[in-house]
Design goal:
By secondary structure, the chain is mainly beta. The chain is built from five helices and 31 strands. Strands 2, 3, 4, 5, 6 and 7 form a six-stranded mixed beta sheet that branches. Helix 2 (59-69) crosses helix 5. The radius of gyration is 24 Å and the shape is globular.
C-alpha cells in the first residue's frame, strides 16, 4: 500500500559498460548460459577522400552490443574470429563452422560524401546451405557462388551522421528477427525521469535510445514528474507533473514540445495509460472523493468512470485488445491485481499468490502480465501467465517498482535501488538475463519503453 499511496501523492557480462558516452549506461549483471554464439565482424570502411575520416560510430559494435543485451546471443570476441570478410565471396564457410557460431555478420561502411554513408551488411548461417531460399532476399540480388546459399540477410542502407546509430539498431533488429523468428526491439526508445537534486530544475523527463544513447530532455521542472507513458504511435508522452503545486496530467508532443493539460481535477490526477488505439486515456482521479479509475475520450475529453469502491483503485494498464483494464486495488484488504471491462460490470481478481501484487502491466503479446510482487518482505518483478495463472519471480533485487515491457515482450525495464540510489534495471521475460542501467548524474526512475518506432 505504501507504493500505491506514493504514486497517488506525489539496456547488458561482467560489469562492462557498452554505452560509455551515454547518459544511462548498461551493465550486464547476469547472463544466460545458453546464449547462442554469433560472430559480428568489424565492418570494412571505405573513405570518399584521401583524408580518412572514420564514421561517427562503430556500426558492427552497435549490432554486437544490441544482440548481447538481448540476452539471447553471445558475440564472439574480435580476436577469436578466424577471418574478416567484407563480402560474400570472402567467406570461408568451413572456418565459421569450426568456430561453432550460429550466424556471421559482416559488411562495409562506404563514405559517399562528408557525413553521408552507404552501409552494406550480410548475415549468413554457416550450417544452412538453403538459407537464402528461406529468406526474403530477392533472387538475382546476390552472386551465384556457393556461399550465397547461406545468406539470411542481405541489406544496403543510405545513412548520415545523425541517424547512423539508429540505422545500426535497425540492422540489429533485422538480424535478431532472422535468427529468432521474432521482431527485435533495439530501434526503440525509453522515457524516464532523471533527478539531479543539485540542478535548478532537478526533475527531468528524458528520452533515450534503447541502449541509453542520444538522450534528449523532454521537460524539466522544479517539482516532481511521474508516470510517463507513450502514445501508441510513439509521438507523444503523457505524464503527471506537480509544477502547479498539485498533480496534473499532461500530454506532450515529443518533436515539437507542445503540451496539453488534460486532467486537473480536484484531488488526485494520476497514472495515465493510453489505450492501444490511442483514442482514450485511462487515469486515476479522486475528484469524486475516492481514487477511482476513469477513461477519457481524448477527442471530446469526456470521462467514463469504471470503478466504484471505497478502496484505492490505481495503476491501470490496458489489455492489448482494448476491451478491459487491469489495475491495483486493496479492496480485498491487501494490494492485488484486478480486471475490469470497459463494458461495465464488477471487477475480477487476477492475482492470488502472495500478500502484495501491484503496478501490473500487460506484455504487448497479451500472454503475460508483469507486476511488483512482495516476497519475504522484498519487492520483486514477477510475471504471471494469463492462461495458467502461474506466477514466476524474475528478479533478486529488493525494492523494484515502476516497470515497463519491451514491445516484443522479451524484456522488462524497471526502477530499483542500488546502494542508496534509484537506478533502472532490466530483466528478460524468463528471468535468466539481467542488466543494470545507472545514470551518469543523479537518479533515474519511472521508465517507459516505447512502442515500435518504425
Amino acid at each position: 500500500m505504501k507504493h500505491i499511496c506514493k504514486k497517488l501523492v506525489v539496456l547488458w557480462l561482467g560489469l562492462t559498460a557498452f554505452a560509455v558516452n551515454a547518459e544511462v549506461q548498461i551493465y550486464i549483471t547476469e547472463g544466460r548460459d545458453d546464449a547462442r554464439p554469433v560472430a559480428v565482424v568489424p565492418f570494412k570502411f571505405e573513405s570518399a577522400s584521401e583524408v580518412k575520416v572514420e564514421p561517427p560510430h562503430d556500426f558492427a559494435k552497435i549490432i554486437a552490443d544490441d544482440l548481447r543485451r538481448s540476452g539471447k546471443f553471445k558475440p564472439v570476441e574480435t580476436a577469436e574470429l578466424p577471418q574478416s570478410p567484407s563480402q560474400i565471396t570472402d567467406v570461408d564457410i568451413d572456418a565459421w563452422k569450426e568456430l561453432g557460431v550460429d550466424g556471421v555478420v559482416y559488411g562495409v561502411v562506404k563514405e559517399t560524401a562528408p557525413g553521408k554513408y552507404m552501409v552494406s551488411y550480410d548475415l549468413i548461417d554457416p550450417y544452412n546451405d538453403k538459407a537464402v531460399m528461406e529468406s526474403s532476399i530477392p533472387s538475382g540480388s546476390y552472386p551465384l557462388v556457393d556461399q550465397s546459399f547461406h545468406l539470411m540477410v542481405l541489406k544496403t542502407k543510405l545513412v548520415n551522421s545523425d541517424n547512423f546509430r539508429w540505422a545500426g539498431h535497425i540492422a540489429a533488429d533485422e538480424i535478431y528477427e532472422a535468427l529468432t523468428g521474432e521482431r527485435g526491439a533495439f530501434a526503440t526508445q525509453i522515457a524516464y525521469v532523471q533527478v539531479d537534486r543539485l540542478a535548478a530544475k532537478p526533475y527531468n523527463l528524458n528520452v533515450a535510445d534503447s541502449d541509453g544513447f542520444n538522450q534528449t530532455n523532454v521537460f524539466s521542472s522544479k517539482k516532481p514528474i511521474m508516470s510517463p507513458t507513450w502514445s501508441p504511435d510513439g509521438n507523444k508522452l503523457a505524464y503527471v507533473s506537480f509544477e502547479n503545486g498539485r498533480s496534473e496530467i499532461f500530454v506532450q508532443t515529443i518533436a515539437s514540445g507542445q503540451r496539453e493539460l488534460i486532467a486537473s481535477y480536484k484531488g488526485f490526477n494520476s497514472a495515465p495509460a493510453w489505450s492501444p488505439d490511442g483514442s482514450k486515456m485511462a487515469m486515476v482521479l479522486s475528484k469524486d472523493g475516492n481514487p477511482e479509475l476513469y477513461v477519457m475520450d481524448l477527442a471530446t475529453k469526456r470521462l467514463t468512470r469504471l470503478t466504484r469502491h471505497y478502496s484505492i483503485d490505481t495503476e491501470p494498464s490496458w489489455n492489448p485488445d482494448g476491451k478491459s483494464l487491469i489495475f491495483t486495488s486493496d479492496r480485498g484488504g491487501k494490494p492485488q491485481i484486478y480486471s475490469v471491462s470497459l463494458a461495465g460490470g464488477d471487477a475480477d481478481r487476477v492475482t492470488f499468490e502472495g500478500r502484495y501484487n501491484a503496478g501490473a502491466e500487460f506484455a504487448p503479446d497479451g500472454k503475460t502480465i508483469v507486476m511488483v510482487h512482495q516476497n519475504n518482505g522484498n519487492f520483486h518483478v514477477a510475471a504471471q501467465d494469463i492462461d495458467t495463472g502461474n506466477l514466476t519471480v524474475l528478479t533478486k533485487t529488493s525494492l523494484d517498482e515502476s516497470l515497463s515491457v519491451a514491445p516484443n515482450s522479451s524484456m522488462i525495464i524497471f526502477s530499483t535501488v542500488d546502494g542508496q540510489q534509484k537506478v533502472l534495471s532490466a530483466v528478460s521475460m524468463d528471468g535468466r538475463f539481467k542488466a543494470r542501467l545507472p545514470a551518469n548524474v543523479g537518479e533515474v526512475k519511472a521508465p517507459a519503453w516505447s512502442p515500435y518506432i518504425l
